[in-house]
Amino acid sequence: MRRVLLATDGSQCAQQAASFLAHVPHRQKLNLTVMTVLQMPSINRRYPVEGLMSSFVAREREFADATFEKVKEMFDGADVDIEHVYGEGHPSQRIIEFAKERDVDFIIVGAQGHSGIRRMLLGSTSDEVATQAHCSVLVVRPTGIGETVRPLRIAIGYKDTEPARAAIEAFCETRWGMQTDIHVVTIASYISAFLNEIVLDPSVVKDEATAALHEVADRLREVAPHTVAHLVESDHIGEGLVKFAEKHTSDILVVGETPHGMFGNVLLGSVSRYVLRHAPCSVWIARGNVEQSDSPELSNFHESTLAKWS
């Protein structure tokens, strides 16, 4: 059973994240936890505020319960076990801690909550959860996918590494790609991240990347016929991916990270953070190891999009 945590504050973005999850096909039964973090107001304890606090908590819980009922309705008829839990304190910290405690596989959050200024800015809660969580995180931005009848458009960042190849094979075992437009894209960068100068032979880098890209695209087309391969030259990998997503009006842009604590996370994290904060679409931060791609418990949703920049 797939363990998914949907964090919601009842905002429009949070509701859109719930709707997105509800409309994605899944091969296996989902164990879905809807979490609401109640932020208690800061009150001077020298004053008698017990009644005020009780009233505040009651209103917050009432709103949270109403929000949960709306989410629950979205999953009517689906093969989903759904529960509602509360947390108190700092939203992102509680979400991250709860996900770790429950050994959650996947977290879904909206890009902005009630405190957001505008949609294109990433909220601090979403930012911190996506950056610090131990598992994969999908930060949902509305792209109109539920408003019109059209295929889902997914852009997968790909680099010819063992984790990425394992992820592609996991995707090929699913059937979700039959109705999805897949754009697999490799960013060819010839600039040293440390020296900020050209240190590689561009022709060699391009030839090797092109060969690997077309090989994986051919493999993907066996199960996802609407797969297109793209080699994009850009000095900045993250910027190249974001511009690609903008040009192709992607619904999801997938980037990967190595597990926290590994040396590679220094470089890969910079790409992920750039994409997370600048992409116009939903962003999937994929975390895990190669062995996870062979697990029978992986859901269709996770398998179909996981790719690693490592």
TrEMBL record:
Name the InterPro entries for this protein. Rossmann-like_a/b/a_fold, Universal_stress_UspA, USP_A, UspA
SUPFAM superfamilies of this UniProt entry? Adenine nucleotide alpha hydrolases-like
Q: Using the record's annotation, list all stretches that form the UspA domain.
A: 1-141, 153-287
Q: Which residues form a coiled coil?
A: none
Q: Which CDD domains match?
A: USP-like (cd00293)
The cross-references to Gene3D superfamilies, in alphabetical order and at most eight, read:
HUPs
Read off the Pfam families from this record.
Usp (PF00582)
Q: Which family does it belong to?
A: Belongs to the universal stress protein A family.
Q: What is this protein called?
A: Putative universal stress protein
Species of origin: Novipirellula herctigrandis
Starting at the broadest rank, the lineage of the source organism is: Bacteria, Pseudomonadati, Planctomycetota, Planctomycetia, Pirellulales
